[in-house]
Amino acid sequence: MARKTTALATAALAVALLAGCSAGGSGGNGNGNSSGSGSGSTGQSSAPKASSQASSQSKAEACSAFQSKVEDAAKGLQSQVSALQSDPNAAVAKLKEFDQSLSDGVDAVQNTDVKPKAEAFRSAYDEMLTQIESIAKDPKSADLSAFTATTQKVQDAGTEFQKVCTA
């Protein structure tokens, strides 16, 4: 029963993550891939540059920057879903790694239209990660209806991100 619950949670999470991340990818339209890929890699040390980048980063560049930080991590997570289903602790560890990729992605976004959508996606993901950790620790107490609602929040945030990137 515990493994089945964790498997369900991991599979649902992977679907939600991939829906959200692939949603962000369509906004870049191939524009700005090279300029977006490095703009946030230094994180905290580039904070003084952030305000000047905010006014100059286009939506396409911002969307591409976010996508470049999280796309490979999402693909890696998807490829490991079946293995992670049998090992809840490994699943949580991988999901935390993905959380860091999301954080890096949000940091890379400086456009004032795109940033709130990227932050909303990360916030929804954080809520889901908290629930996954709880499920992994005590699968019998899992509230799957709450988990489903949180999964929907991640998907909705991904949709909103896509809308701003394609507008």
Radius of gyration: 16 Å
Total beta strands: 0
| Tally of domains | 1
Give the N-terminus to C-terminus distance in angstroms: 45 Å
SS element count, helices: 8
Overall structural class, as computed from helix and strand content, comes to: mainly alpha
In terms of per-residue confidence, which ranges show pLDDT below 50 for 5 or more consecutive residues? 22-53
Biased composition (Gly residues): 26-41
Organism: Curtobacterium citreum
Region (Disordered): 26-58
Signal peptide: 1-23
Question: Please, could you describe this protein's structure?
Answer:
This is Lipoprotein. With 167 residues, the protein is mostly helical. 78% of the residues lie in helices and 0% in strands. It has eight helices and no strands. α1 packs antiparallel against α4 (59-79). The radius of gyration is 16 Å and the shape is elongated. Residues 22-53 have low confidence and may be disordered.
